[in-house]
Design brief:
Layout (H helix, E strand, L loop, with lengths): L3 H13 L6 E6 L16 E4 L9 E4 L5 E6 L8 E7 L6 E3 L1 H12 L3 E7 L12 H17 L6 E11 L2 H10 L22 E4 L7 H4 L1 H8 L5 H6 L13 E6 L8 H13 L3 E6 L18 H11 L8
Parallel strand pairs: 5-7, 5-8, 8-9, 9-10, 10-11
Antiparallel strand pairs: 1-4, 2-3, 3-6, 4-7
Helix pairs in contact: 3-4
């Protein structure tokens, strides 16, 4: 018999998802308390970094109950659409939910792509250390949950990708390089779904754990004060690229001081060696943290190049 908490969770999805048109749908990622978050009472905090009206730029701190925000299409499509699970950045301590999340989803919706924003548990909160394990569990669950609800959300389950910004890139790249096809014997129907993305994208993404590239700070945030060599290898995504890695698109600026362009260069080289298609959009100027916004630098055109790439791969449509 399915536990009552699971029935409540599934009924919530079924009751709220079906016939919605334009708008957003927020869905809990896990039934009840997320695994690894038992007993934590810390309250989630929202910090508005914009003016709250013209510019909305929220930063979510102390996440312990992860969610998906599904940006539903305005009209019923003739056939199911491609979807992207979006992993915002935030330095592994917060989730930059708008400029690297909801704003991106709204932009993609103009091109008939459903954006789904993942609010995940970060490696560190104000008073709790999670490390990498719950973050990885959240992104895997997100991919499975989207496929489980594909029909309700008007999504093609064979065109579900993942997009990571900054520190969110390590989540996206991890599920793109070390995925599984689901557990066919699991009683939870969500866990039976594959978590493999059909495509992978990153904007100024952190993709490697090589000390010479990422430095010790992020290593410690993800693995504690004494990361092992096996942990660093396991989450250096360029070391885990195989011929089964999905086609990829990566954008980066060479003057990015927060997440070095070497992250993208190493991953692209690994893709070439494995025979995996990988398109890069690299420009000299642009820095870090621009999200979907046009700040007048060359890198800000990445979003148009990404849409062109999606269209070329039959994942999006030109804007009407």
């Amino acid at each position: 018999m399915i536990p009552m908490k699971h029935l409540v969770f599934l009924s919530l999805i079924i009751a709220t998802a079906p016939s919605a048109r334009a708008g957003t749908l927020q869905v809990p990622l896990w039934p009840g308390v997320a695994p690894g978050s038992q007993g934590i009472t810390e309250t989630e905090k929202v910090v508005e970094r914009g003016d709250g009206k013209r510019v909305i730029d929220r930063s979510i701190h102390d996440v312990h109950r992860p969610t998906l925000t599904v940006h539903l299409p305005g009209e019923t499509p003739r056939r199911p659409l491609a979807a992207v699970v979006i992993c915002p950045g935030g330095g592994l301590t917060r989730v930059v939910i708008d400029k690297e999340g909801n704003d991106v989803a709204r932009f993609l919706s103009r091109h008939a792509v459903i954006g789904i924003v993942l609010k995940f548990r970060t490696a560190k909160t104000t008073s709790h250390f999670y490390g990498m394990t719950p973050m990885e569990a959240d992104v895997r669950r997100a991919m499975r949950l989207v496929r489980h609800n594909a029909k309700r959300w008007q999504i093609d389950p064979q065109r579900v990708g993942v997009l990571g910004f900054s520190a969110g890139g390590i989540l996206a790249a991890t599920v793109a390089t070390r995925f599984d096809r689901g557990d066919a014997d699991n009683r939870d129907p969500v866990e039976r779904q594959s978590c493999r993305p059909d495509f992978f994208a990153g904007a100024y993404p952190m993709l490697t754990m090589k000390t010479s590239v990422v430095g010790p700070r992020y290593q410690e945030l993800l693995f504690g004060p004494s990361p092992s060599a096996s942990q660093l290898l396991r989450y250096s995504s360029e070391q885990n690229v195989t011929r089964h890695t999905p086609p990829s698109f990566l954008a980066h600026a060479r003057d990015d001081r927060a997440v070095r362009v070497t992250n993208t260069e190493l991953f692209a080289k690994a893709c070439r060696q494995a025979g995996v298609p990988c398109t890069t959009f690299i420009r000299d100027k642009g820095g870090h943290g621009y999200g979907i916004r046009d700040l007048g630098t060359p890198i800000n055109k990445w979003r148009h190049a990404f849409v062109d790439w999606l269209i070329k791969n039959r994942l999006a449509k030109p804007r009407r």
